[in-house]
Each structure stands twice: as structure tokens, then as C-alpha cells.
Please model this.
Amino acid sequence: MFGGTGRRRLVDFRVVDTTLQDPLVGQTLDGRYRVEARIAVGGMATVYRAVDTRLDRVLALKVMHPGLAADAGFVDRFIFEAKAVARLAHPNVVGVYDQGTDGTFVYLAMEYIAGCTLRDVLRERGALQPRAALDILEPVLAALGAAHRAGLIHRDVKPENVLIADDGRVKVVDFGLVRAVDTNTSVTTGSVLGTVSYLAPEQIEHGTIDQRTDVYACGVLLYEMLTGGKPHVGGTPMQVIFHVLNEDIAAPSEAVPGLAPALDALVGRASARDPQLRPEDAVELLAQLHATRRTLSEEQLDLVPPRAVRDSTEPEDAVPGAARQGDPRNSAPDEELTSVISRPVLPAEEELNRTSVLQLPPPLPPAPAGPPGRGAGGHRPARRGPRRGLLALVSAVLLILGVGAGVWYISDGQFTKVPAVLALSQADAQQKLDQAGLHTKIASNFSLTVPRGKVISTDPGPGQRVRDNAEVTLTVSKGPQEVHVPDVTGKTLAVAQEQIKGAALTPGTVTQGFTEDVPKGAVISTDPPAGTKRSPDAVVSIVVSKGAAVEVPDVVGESVADAQQTLQEAGLIVVLAPDKVFSDVADKDEVAVQTPEKGTQAGEGDTVTITISKGLQLFDVPDVKGRNSGEARQILKAAGFDIRVMHAFFGDTVFSQSPEGGKQAPRGATITVWVR
Model:
């Protein structure tokens, strides 16, 4: 976690063994948050699944490491950033509910997301189809755009920080918190934040951080989703840094033949090494994504990359969730696409505690009596002993076998394990469960990552022990949920935004435009247009009417009354500036300045501010009598006046001037001097 010099280095959260003992598990922080399980640990904090005992809801609790919590400055920055993120309140940002301290523990209470990370998806699926990649990047940019407009920079955009919920919603995590670690990043100090592959060149070389560093990371993210690999690779972080600083990111179509050139261009703009060539922020990149998407055909959007994982051909004994070594495309699909951050860890079943009764075999019947006529002497004493011994031995063996069978049945015999059927078709999954002697119940749900008709999850999960003939619920993908952009043309902005939210979409940026067809203040259009299909939470930008365009007339130099009449006749509202100004272009009490200027387009009912002239500004004229003409010229020029020299007699001394010294004249006026 910490280097030898004591400088902090933020590392990725990694999955940990939740069965390990943790001193916080079982405790209640701040008298409110009951810690149930440790689910992830990183260089800055540990994440727990907890229950808010006041509101009775599950949430994620991020607790700072005690070593960092002892640094008051670090804690202050941590809290400041947490408050900033909490104010975002964006549907694509993991929400921050609360922040507090309990003794030495400094914590954040955050939204708990049931789902997986984009890294899980890429690991399981390889490259994504362009449609899925854009569907994921769109809400990511919406979240970053909201942060950028609020003055926040993420600084650690990567697949691990993009969560995909079970219902298809996309969330960005760790907003702003990275800033609290070190606001002056530099590779030479060893405190570079974020994964090296996603750092912008200027972030590595100069420590320069702005919205365009997040834009660069989004370009790398899109490249990785489209191709299944990172654009820059190397054996060490320094080799990757060398490539980032010296090589442009290759076009994704070099790795994915047939990929649309528009996608190459989008990746190229976002990941340009020169930050001046990138979009200004995530809002601008989102607009470019929308424009690019409109140019793509259905075939281009549904192109299957060569590194995409298709139907499973893994043998049943493949390691769940592991890829075959050396080939990242061959990820076994029988591991549920959920990260430990969102998947609760169930306790082991204690079936031996159930009220099962061990049934022993009944005692053997007595040996039959000897044949008639033998009486008591029917069995010779010499043979009775061994036969009874044999019967006793058989009885003992049967008893041992019966006890063993009973114990085996109670501990193992009546149980089986749920086979791995994730990503299989519904028919194949049902057949596999039938072969395991299990009953099947079918449920369905939408998914951005699992194709239609394939299994998203099972309940109980793969590998869990269940009784014979138990029922397993298969959740089958219905494919990406699509919603239609509502037609809000002609509606007020507030009504349009509510209708967009009601359609499970996210209202985006609002711009204004002139039109004669739509009343001022009403919606002209949306992007995407009405009727377009989009995934839930997709961003919809809105254009609002400013009314018919009016060309602002020129009223500079007119009297106040004339200017007001001219502007009102044009449908504009006149506002009189409270202060007057000196003017070289307008006489006193005439209009000296107008805002906006003449020729500018404005909407009907817009305001035009006019400022009244105080006339020319006058300055004192220096007295240059008695000076020679050279000195007089220098003095008057320094005071802002021009000079005209008149020679009355031979000589070079000023004996008269007009205006006289001490009088006032406008700056730039000509002062006439006579010399002799």
C-alpha cells in the first residue's frame, strides 16, 4: 500500500476472501451501520456490505485505513470531495448517502450496486459489439459530464470504476475521491494516480489535470471495449508510459477489421495526445458520440469483433470464470457476471443440524429350529459356536454399513451441487439441471451484457449445495431493455424534463435556438429525436426555443427617446444602464454603447441595455510658453495632445498657445503654438 518513502499510492480495489476475520465485521459504526461482510480492499479504504439499521437498507460502507485516517489534512480533503460528489445526485453516479467518523474509523456510506464491473464484462466477453460499447459509454459520459460541469474531475476512469447493475443501469464509482489523495500528480514523485494505461500524456509528463484527462481515459475505455485489449501494452509500467508519451493510439479497426471509420475517428479525437485536440469535456464528447452513432448503420452497430466470446464450448470440468492461459478470449461463461462488491456471501449450509433421524436396520430373526426328531441334539455343540460367530460378524458388518450409509445420506447423499449454466441457452441450461436431478423455474430480466435467451444468473448460484430435487430459478436474458424517446416538442422545459425522466431516460444539456414555429420557452427538438430507441438512463439533450430571431438595430448616437422607440418597435425590451460614460462617438445625453451590439440576433422580448454618453472627456492642457518647439511637442504629446507649430518670427521659443495652458480640451485635440 505504501512505498518506502512514505508517499501514498492508490491501488485498485481487489476481491478479497470474505471468510477471513475482520475486526469490523459484526460491529455497528456510529450506532447505525451494522457491518456484515468485507467485500473489497484497496490502498485507501476497505469496502464492507452493511445495513443501515435506521432505514433498514443495504448499503456499501467505505472505511478509510487507520494510517490514512490519522492524517488530518487527508481526512479533510476526503470529506470535502465526498460532499462534492454527494451534491451531484446523478442517476449514473454511485450515490453517497452519509459521511462520518466513529473513533478512529472515517467512513462513507454509499449506494450498494448489485451487478458487475465493466472489467468483469470485458474479462468474460472479450471485445463488445459497437452497439453495446456505445450503450455503456453513453451513461459514463453523462455522469462525467455532470461532474465536469460541477467542477469535479474523476482522474481514475477505468473499467474497474464502471459498474453495471443487474437491471442494466450503468454507474460510475469513486467520483472525486481520487483527488483527495494528491492534487499534484507527477510520475517523478511516484504518486501518479489511476491505472497507467488510462492516464493522459500530460497527466504523466507534467501533472496537468483537467476535464480532458477524463476524456482521454474514456477514449482508451472505448478502444478497449471495441477491441478487447488495451491500446498500449508493455512488460512494465514504464514501458507502457513510454508508449503513452510517444505513440498515438492505433485505430480500433486495425484490430477489428470492418469496424466503422466513424468509430476510429471518435476514439482518435478522445484519445489525442495533444489535449487541445480533444473535446473540452465529457459533455462535448457525449455530443460527438450521439453524432457518430447517427451515422452508423444497424450492421455496423451489430458487428461482432473477432475477440468477442460467443457461445460456450468449454468442457464441464473447466475452472469456473477462468480463461484458458494465453488466450484472453476464451473466458468460461459458467461464472456469474457479478463482482464480489455486489454479490452477498452466503453462509455454508449446516444440514447436519437438521432433525434427521438415523434409521438402523432391524435385528436379524432367530435361527430356525432343527429338523423333527433331533430335538435338542439337532445341532452339535461343535458347530454351534462358529455359526453364531458368523451371524454376529454379518450383523456387525450390516450395522456398520447401515450406520455409514445413514451418515453419508445425511451429510452428502441427499445433496447435490448446482451445475454452472451461466451464459448457456435456456434449453441447454434446463437439460443440464434435469441431468443433475433438479427442477427448474424460469424468470427473465433485461441485460446489456448477456445476449437474449442466455442465462444471466441462477438461484441458488453455481456450485452451491442443494437437496436432491430442489428447485433452481433460471434468470434468462431478454436482451437490452430499450425505451423510446418521448415526443416533447412544444412542451415547456420543465414538463419535457419530467416526461423524459418518466420514460426512464436522463435529461441532458439544454441549449437554445431561434425559430418562428415554436413559442419562446418551448422545446424545439431533442437529441436523440423522438421515437428513437435507447437503453434506460440514456441522456437526451434538449433544444429550447428563443422565439423568432430579431436583428438588433443600431441606436448608438441616437437620443434616449429615439433609441427606446427603435428598439421597442423591433420587439425588444430596453434597459437603461445606471451609469453614464464618456464617449468619442456620441454627444452628451445620446446613446454611447448598446449591448448586444448592432446586427446581433436576439429573440423577441430579449433585453438590450443602452448606456448614455457624458460627452467627450476633457483634460488639462499643459502650459508650454517659454519652451522651445521640441520641448513643447514632447510635453503636449505626453499629455495626449497633438501640436501644430506656427512661426511668427525667426526663433524657436513659444510665446503663445491655443488653448491656453490650464484650459481643458479632449484627449487627442490639436494645440496650436506660436514661436519666435
Remarks:
- The first helix runs from residue 66 to 69.
- The CA atoms of residues 512 and 544 lie 5 Å apart.
- Confidence is low (pLDDT under 50) at residues 1-19, 176-194, 310-385, 407-413.
